[in-house]
Each structure stands twice: as C-alpha cells, then as structure tokens.
Amino acid sequence: MRREYIKAYPKYKQVAFLKIANLVKGMLEETELFNAYMWLYGKPEELYLRYHRNDFSEEIKKATGTIVEGVSVWVGGYCAFTFIGSEIHSLYYHAREDLTEKEYETLYKNLEVLHKFSGDRHATIPMKIGEIQQYTIGFNKLEFLGIWGDTYIEMTDLCKGKYRGE
User: Fold this and answer.
1) Burial group, residue 166, by CB count within 10 angstroms (0-12, 13-18, 19+)
2) Which of 32, 41, 25, 44 is nearest to 91 (CA)?
3) φ/ψ of residue 96, rounded to 5
4) Element (H, E) at 133
5) What is the CA radius of gyration of the chain?
6) Is the Cβ–Cβ distance between 102 and 86 less than 8 Å?
7) What is the chain's pLDDT, residue by residue, as a tens digit (166 residues)?
8) Does this model's pTM top 0.90?
9) Helix %, strand %, coil % of the chain (to 5)
10) Euclidean distance between the first and the last CA atom of the chain, given in angstroms as a whole number
C-alpha cells in the first residue's frame, strides 16, 4: 500500500528555499536572462528546484548522506542551471564553471533542510518514503516521490500564518 504524507510547508523550510532562490537570483543577475524576461525578476514563486534520479545517476552512486548533490533550477519554465556537486551547467550562465565554497554550502545545506520530514526532528523524507525518484520544490509547495510510489507533499495553503518572502 502506498503512503501519502500531506503537511503544511513550515516557515523554516520556506526560509531555506528563499536562501537558495537568492543565490540563484544573484547568479542570474550576472546574465542577460532578466533583461529578456524582466517579469521574472524578484519572483521566487517562479523558481523551482527539480530532481529526477535518471538525471543524476553518477551522483547517486557517490551520495553518502540524505541528499544527492545534483539539482536543476527552473525559472519561469526555463532550466536556468543544473548543479552537479559544485559544477555549474547552464545555457545562460558562462561566468564560471563552479560554485564558490559559500554558494556550495548555501545550496546543499538548505537542500538538506528541505529534505527533512516536518514534525520529526530526526527523520528525513527518504526515511519515510524510501529512495527519492523525483522532487519539485517551489515557493509555495514541495513534492517528493519515492521509488515505490510513496509521496510527500508540503503546501503553504495548509499553513495557519503563511510566510511571504521578500
């Protein structure tokens, strides 16, 4: 029997997402993307973190902790970046090939926070739904799918006092 967890998207996770969004925004400011798509500027709700295990098979083999060091960042329907460890892959961004140490720590530390199982200080989402097949994390919702079909969803619509980003 498949398990489905649906919970409120807690403020501490929304803050973690906004830290990643601000990192990405800073990198995108170095490109021409916002000149071409000005309506995206300053809108964290248009940014999504996406992961599918088929895209990161080598990183899965190297993973030692809760998260796989690989994620794609989508902005307004465009894949702006794919981060593999500290490597930066992008059609828009060519300033450098690697994240700085601080950017790397910000990205993966906050991804670890987003992988925590809300309401259980020691549990992670993979502990509850198994290995992660895919996930999408956004400003208002995050959704994880385990390899056996179990799901974990958090939504701001379920929060009593919704947090609004800056």
Assistant:
1) exposed
2) 32
3) -160, 170
4) strand 132-137
5) 16
6) no
7) 899 999 999 999 999 999 999 998 888 877 766 666 666 666 667 789 999 999 998 888 888 777 899 999 998 888 888 999 999 998 777 778 999 999 999 999 999 999 999 988 899 999 999 999 999 999 999 999 999 999 999 999 876 544 444 3
8) no
9) 35, 30, 35
10) 41
3-class DSSP assignment, residue 6: strand
CA-CA-CA-CA torsion for 133, 136, 141, 146, nearest 10 degrees? 0
Residue 48 corresponds to which amino acid? Answer: Y
Question: What totals of helices (H) and strands (E) does the chain contain, helices first?
Answer: 5, 8
Question: CA-CA distance, 141 to 139, in Å (whole number)?
Answer: 6
